[in-house]
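User: Please fill in residues for this 87-position structure.
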C-alpha cells in the first residue's frame, strides 16, 4: 500500500483491474476531495512524484496487464464451387 502526504493531506494509491487511482484519506483544504473520495486527476502526477520522493519505486505505479485471451479458430470457409447442401 502506497500512502503519501501532499500539501498536508494524506492520500493512498489504489490498484485495481479497472484502473489505478488516488484516494483521499485525511486532511482538508487545497485539492483534497474528502475522505475516501478519488483525488482530482490533475493532482495525480504531483502525488506520484511525492511518493517517489518518499522512497517508493516507479514500478509500483505500473498498471496491471490484462490476461491474454486465446484466439478461437475460425470455422472452415465454404468453397466457392457450386454445391448442394443436405441437412
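Assistant: Residues filled in for all 87 positions:
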Amino acid at each position: 500500500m502506497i500512502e503519501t502526504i501532499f500539501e498536508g493531506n494524506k492520500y493512498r494509491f489504489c490498484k485495481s483491474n479497472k484502473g489505478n487511482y488516488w484516494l483521499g484519506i485525511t486532511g482538508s483544504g487545497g485539492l483534497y476531495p474528502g475522505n475516501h473520495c478519488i483525488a482530482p486527476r490533475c493532482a495525480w502526477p504531483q502525488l506520484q512524484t511525492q511518493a517517489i520522493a518518499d522512497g517508493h519505486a516507479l514500478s509500483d505505479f505500473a498498471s496491471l496487464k490484462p490476461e491474454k485471451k486465446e484466439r478461437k479458430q475460425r470455422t472452415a470457409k465454404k468453397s466457392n464451387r457450386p454445391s448442394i447442401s443436405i441437412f
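For context: The chain has a mean pLDDT of 83.
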